[in-house]
Amino acid sequence: MLDATRPFRLTPQRAAVFQVVRDACDHPTAREIYARVKACQPGIGFATVYRTLNLLAAHREILELQLGDDAVARYDANTAPHDHILCTSCGAIADINVPLPESTTRQAARESGFEVEGYELQFLGRCAGCVTQ
Amino acid sequence: MLDATRPFRLTPQRAAVFQVVRDACDHPTAREIYARVKACQPGIGFATVYRTLNLLAAHREILELQLGDDAVARYDANTAPHDHILCTSCGAIADINVPLPESTTRQAARESGFEVEGYELQFLGRCAGCVTQ
DNA sequence: GTCCCTGCAAAAGTTTTGCATTGCG
DNA sequence: CGCAATGCAAAACTTTTGCAGGGAC
Predict the structure, then answer these.
(1) How far is the CA of B131 from the C1' of C12 (A)?
(2) Are A125 and B111 within 8 A, CB to CB?
(3) Which residues of B touch A109 (CB under 8 A)?
(4) Which superfamily is assigned to A81-133 in CATH?
(5) How far apart (Å, rounded) are the C-alpha atoms in residues A126 and B57?
């Protein structure tokens, strides 16, 4: 993944941040990542975490997501195109993969006159646990 | 739209904020709305604008949107379900209407185990003006 | 009079930036 | 040595909250 061939230096702090994002299965915020990185890099500062997340996102090593109406960035080590679903009850976030039909993208282009490059799709609902409660 | 039958008072400040959002065709931010409202309500404060936008959104008179990776809320007086497309070059935002096939929603439910209540779909691309440049 | 609303200021929260220091290459 | 990266603190920015004053009913 990250090695000497990258156009940026792989410092222990950066490696720790990247490891935390890869190990996470809950789309953590920068603050949550900071707390987890503290476990193995106690001296790390906020700024380094933010700078590293921006660096990794700029190099497409991770994704920066804006989910729900939170106004807080979340991070995802799964860089393959995929979608998300959010539980409106408990806030859980899950990865899903529901490609749009080609016709839908074509319709978006036709309606808007835009050249479509991609899309972001999030579903809202209630997770299995919250439904049975 | 807003009249005496609403469960909240229609003050001149609130009417001005609502009017600005309805007249806007660019999905303005709270700060932009504040600047425009100043034109007819020079004494209005930030807090009143934010409180009014939250009030109107809570009563489904307007929509609060989180578009792109901006981490800033935008507002839309079009409360009918619809989608958006963003120009990655100039930042333009357009409304579009591309309903997802039923099968796509069903697939999301099946993959996640969630009870799907809705979705948000944004396309990314380049607008006609930016393409020809 | 009561209650809701407003405006101002301060607070809260996230993210960025400035700068001196550190440490790899 | 030279340059990039770090850590700390302060700043920038959006949004919320506390509170005293004022207006509507």
Answers:
(1) 42
(2) no
(3) 125
(4) Ferric-uptake regulator, C-terminal dimerisarion domain (3.30.1490.190)
(5) 21
Rounded CA separation A118/A105 (Å): 9
Q: Across the interface, do B124 and A101 touch by the CB < 8 Å criterion?
A: no
What pLDDT is attached to residue B69? Answer: 83
Cβ-Cβ contacts under 8 Å, A84 against chain B = none
For the segment 86-115 of chain A, residues whose CB is within 7 A of strand D: none
Helix (H, G, I), strand (E, B) or coil at A4: coil
Question: What is d(CA B92, CA A76) in angstroms, rounded to the nearest whole number?
Answer: 26
Beta strands (DSSP E) in chain A are: 63-65, 74-76, 83-87, 93-96, 115-126
* The model's pTM: 0.91
Q: How far apart are CA A113 and CA B132, in angstroms?
A: 12
Per-residue pLDDT averaged across B122-127, rounded?
96
Q: Are B77 and B24 in contact (CB under 8 A)?
A: yes
Q: Which fold has domain A1-79?
A: Arc Repressor Mutant, subunit A (1.10.10)
Dist CA A119 CA B67 (whole Å): 11
Strands A115-126 and B115-126: antiparallel
Q: What is the pLDDT of residues B63-82, one digit of tens each?
A: 999 998 888 999 999 999 99
CB nearest A112 (choices: B71, B85, B100): B85
